[in-house]
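Sample A.
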Amino acid sequence: MSDTRRRVKVYTLNEDRQWDDRGTGHVSSTFVERLKGTSLLVRAESDGSLLLESKISPNTAYQKQQDTLIVWSEADNYDLALSFQEKAGCDEIWEKICEVQGKDPALDITQDPIDESEEERTDEIPETSHLVELPPCELGRLEEIADLVTSVLSSPIRREKLALALMNEDYIKKLLGLFRVCEDLDNREGLHHLYEIVRGVLFLNKAALFEVMFSDDCIMDVVGCLEYDPALVQPKRHREFLTKTAKFKEVIPITDSELRQKIHQTYRVQYIQDIILPTPSLFEENFLSTLNSFLFFNKVEIVSMLQEDEKFLTEVFAQLTDEATDDSKRRELVNFVKEFCAFSQTLQPQNRDAFFKTLANLGILPALEIVMGMDDLQVRAAATDIFSYLVEFSPSMVREFVMQEPQQTDDDVLLINVVIKQMICDSDPELGGAVQLMGLLRTLIDPENMLASTNKTEKTEFLSFFYKYCMHVLTAPLLANTAHDKNSKELQEGSAKINPVCPDNFQTAQLLALILELLTFCVEHHTYHIKTYIMNKDLLRRVLVLMNSKHTFLALCALRFMRRIIGLKDEYYNRYIIKGNLFEPVINALLDNGTRYNLLNSAIIELFEFIKVEDIKSLIAHIVDNFYKALESIEYVQTFKGLKGRYEQEKDRQSQRLSRYRRDARSMDEDEELWFNDDEDDDDGEPVEKRMEDDFSDSYGKYMEAKKGAANGANGANGGKTGIPPSSAAVSSNSSTSSLKAVSLPATPVVKTAVVGLVDYPDDEDDEEEDEEEEQTPRKRPRLSS
């Protein structure tokens, strides 16, 4: 269907009193047999699916607003709206609705809505005029008019009738004429009454009245009436602010007069809602829902009109990136784009997608790269807000842009590096901007929002890019502040835990804490890349220097970084920690903390408790071997005694395994002799031969594998045991009997701290399984580092 007159957007009002866009399609009015009546049907223009099917009920109140909107309620708290592309289409459907209901299309509302509280009284209301009778619009009757307007607010029926009366008699403009007279005469009493009247008319919540009150001819007089609040000693000067203080800045001249008028109107109405009108009470909170809708649709229209004017936006971005543009002009341009993006938040998701794609096509990201690197703080702050809108909309779009940059530019001016540098150089003592930028960086490097379905390599490619071009910029302040760590052993026992390398400056400490938070996120979500970086840069050692910081929150950040690494239970990390003796600064911090029971104390003990509970054997052995003497005096928790217990259990378990294998090796010689003796006494040769032939392939294959595995250890066997020469392997065969027997292999040599090179013998499998079941020992783990 190509008829643009019937092209509409379908909106529904959600629980937060905000309009949700349900889609774009084409509307028609058709008799639907199933619904037994004429209905409004909207079919999606994308796939023809049914977006809306609504029977035109004779008792439903339909309202026409702003020439292109039709609004109605179908059930309790379920409001619908059709927003037409063209006025002609709206008029056509409105006439059809009025025809079904038998109403005059000249009216902007078809029914008087009746709520439940008044339904019971409708029979008692005598037949009267359709409208409320208004007093003559004269100075002497202002008090009477104010009382009337105030009295109807509690009754939905009377509100509707008063609104119709005000529209039909052009009453609003007459009242505003009286306002000018009262102001000329300085008639304060009359001005106070006019304040009550205009405020009450706004609370009637009628779009048709808003169209009149917010027109160019009337809006400043409406603002004037609202200046004279009886509760104030002196009137506010809102008109002076709107006309003199608030300046409308056209960064690029707007030639469309309708667009200019819409921008002015929206700003002033927003000012009335946010500044002039008092915060509505619980009773009044729904009175201004139509005012919210009025602003909502205005903003949608402004964004749409600007978006469609490609010449205007192209000029904006051309001037924004032009080196010849002066600083004040560029500041205005950036603020315009920021406000433009803020307005776009009123759009529904599919419309917002189109909006940001338009900005991307016009070059918003290259422009941001330039302005975010400028010295002007206001420009940088506005650019950061724009960047946050883009990252929240589509992290993938930003990632795609930055990955194309290295081919065209130096590392220093990459967009992500510009963002990181701005975070590092934030001059705010509280680092408000740095915190915002850190959140945006975390969104960009979060694998959870990398779209594997559309681009399977996005995660790998972007993380490789980030660690190659950006990670060194992020970690530069951390490495610079931990460059010359003094050996902790040089610190005297009981001395204050202050390392001259650690930053005393609170702002620097906050920055390092932010960087550590981001690195901790990387440990959790980037397995391979961050592991390689930590190993290559010896990063954990540098981070643990901060355990000596006088700022406890920074020491906790360093500890949290290590805790996340240990929490992965990765043996590569464990070996790195053991080799570097990286528990030493943590244990020094625990001992320096003394008997204070604080967060640092609890966090360190939790780290060791985790190692104990998860039974990380390599770390337990390292801690007990190297630090137990320093820790054994800590008895208010059982953590360190528990670590010692785990260590002793593991040593006992290894000893038992070693002794068992020695015992098995000795017993095999005796078993072999018995086997040969039994074989000689066995007269029933056929079953034996058959059994041995069946077992031959399995036993011999296992024996050869075992023999190869033990060959290297055969020469180092202990005790008086000597290897059996090859000739001792008896293989006898004759016509009636064939006897095959695999002989025992030398015992495995014993290593000081761990069992290595153990061999599973063919004849010993069942015994070994039974022994392991009795002892309930866990599966073999990688050997402990010694």
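Sample B.
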Amino acid sequence: MVGKNEGDSGSEKPLDLFLNIGLDEKTAKNTLANNKVTANLTAVIHEAAVTDGCDRTVGNLLYTVATKFPSNALVHRPTLLKYVVSLKIKTPAQLEAAFSFLDATASDNLKVNDFEAACGVGVEVSAEDIESAVNEIFEENKAVILEQRYRTNVGELFGYVRKKQPWADPKIVKQLIDAKLYALLGERTAADNEKPVKKKKEKPVKAEAEDKAIVEETAKPSEEEINPFSIFPSPEENFKVHTEIYFSDRPVLRACNSKEVLEKHLKVTGGKVFTRFPPEPNGYLHIGHAKAMFVDFGLAKERGGCCYLRYDDTNPEAEKKEYIDHIEEIVRWMGWEPFKITYTSDYFQELYELAAELIRRGHAYVDHQTPEEIKEYREKKMNSPWRDRPIEESLQLFDDMKRGVIEEGKATLRMKQDMQSDNFNMYDLIAYRIKFTPHPHAGDKWCIYPSYDYAHCIVDSLENITHSLCTLEFETRRASYYWLLDALGLYQPYVWEYSRLNVTNTVMSKRKLNRLVTQKWVDGWDDPRLMTLSGLRRRGVTATSINSFVRGIGITRSDSSIIRLDRLEYHIREELNRTAPRTMVVLNPLKVVITNMEASSVIYSDAKKWPDAPADDASSFYKVPFSNIVYIEHSDFRMKDSKDYYGLAPGKSVLLRYAFPIKCTEVILGDDKETVLEIRAEYDPLKKTKPKGVLHWVAESAPGVVPLKIEVRLFDKLFISENPAELDDWLGDLNPESKVLISEAYAVPSLRNAMVGDRFQFERLGYFTVDKDSTPEKLVFNRTVTLRDTYGKVGK
């Protein structure tokens, strides 16, 4: 045996363990930066019984086992480690062969003879055998070697030798190849050391299009970018081990389904993917839920499977029918159709019966500690005084809890997990608590309610969910998830966590959103400044653009980034640019009197709804009246002109879009001699003038008839800081300019018939939608997004 000491001492620090097996200090410290590799390598060292150290060659192989061992065959890792430590497997080639064999074997019984044959166990390759193989390779490739000399690809030669002698010692192979090269070529020359000059290819005259095609071809998106769901395994693969749970007092739990359990599951599901979107009905859904919907419903749709909409309704005090109705409605608005709508409360009876079974199996107990005592004992890793009470006593007390005999707060049911674990979520989590509160869905039948940690995984199993997908903050709960299903002998779904969707200049926590709403910092859950999905919808954002934004982000596990708001706005503009017809609105009207036009005269021009509107399609145009009273934006007039200014100024001409050029001839000022009250101008009916500036405008449709008055709400970022959630005084960061109300803007007559939810591009101003506050007397428009695109300039 190569191990220096088989004794297991559990007190070593990871860094010491890594140095003991021969890792250099830099590699050891880099390993500590990766929690997953650290945990795997520590486990491997303990399983191999080399905590006091081993030869460096063995240590390097152990490191490879920790980083590359197939996760579906973890049950066989201890066996492989015995082969490594005893030097029956001693080369990287043998180890790679072992990985391939075990990956194919998975959790099935290991056929030792076939395994040893596949890995070359017991095969000794002599130096003479290796030399003979090297000589053969050099003879076969002599002409190429003489031509390329020391530029010969040694890696290829190495590969040829390995095909002939797969279990040859790689060090000996390298030494013999180097020696053979020297014997054939002699000393290196100056020419051998020169870098080869790359010849530039001559481009044909008309190669621009071809070059572009080549660039596009080399920049092909990855399979994951094309199909973000390709990372998930099929339901048939859910017998593979992909999670290990470490305990302080018992063997490692390798979470997987037996083939019998999996076959039973597949028979029920027909081999289809089953997912679930499980919101808690205690608030309105926000854009983070849009990502969850995309992952859950999207995976099921892509694989031809089914996705439940399941209300996680285990807390009756916080849940309302208002939220339940909203969630179902917004899920469908987002374009998703649930396979079934279920409630965790639908399973309250099964959950209760399984909790009693958990007690009978010795895995749960009734506890009488107060919440403060539970917190203190968990922090100190101390067992509850009632942890080891008799099973029958806990069963009786649990029944008393159910019958309402025990007062609220005087007892809980806790799972008997591992109080000495390194994972805080294994410290005897609460499974049931007493609440004398009627349930919005289940009524007053129950006075005990299951916790999320108890109910979530069991209902996943009862609904035969194949992929239980959630955000990364639940990753540490994976141990509890699988511990409970294993303790009850239930089918185990495949669990995978992805990063939360965080967007700049907003808050996403329900607690903070609820405070904004209840304290009236905003105008309800659907305030257009909020990142709630109802708020975004009211703002005029489409479900298509939200899903496009989420898909563009991808399903990653990187949890350190916050997505810039302008990236979302880019996708909104992309959608609205294609779908929102153009129209003209003046937000801050400045009156312009056309002095060379009759007061009774009205000329109608054709204005384009779309930039590329075909001339022969009447539906792509709308009529806009031009009269002697026109209104432009106050900001489009200056008293002093400049070269970089394209608006109107005294003596200057501009083009009124779709109409005529006008020239400012006089300015009417207020009593302060500064405030501009009115402009006098002349128009060019023959359109001979060709000014550079083009302005949007609105005119009176008849003498003395004021243009259509509308209310416009200009929405901006709700918070000034990019990440207000990090601030202690986050409410103090609210943007005072997040909502600007313009009560009397002027619009073209064609907008009079706009309906709630209709979307438009107000030319030169942005994209707007008709708000639900509109009345027959006055339309109200919300600004969805400006025309400016900062994200598109730096990349999509």
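B remarks: The mean pLDDT is 89. The longest strand covers residues 661-669.
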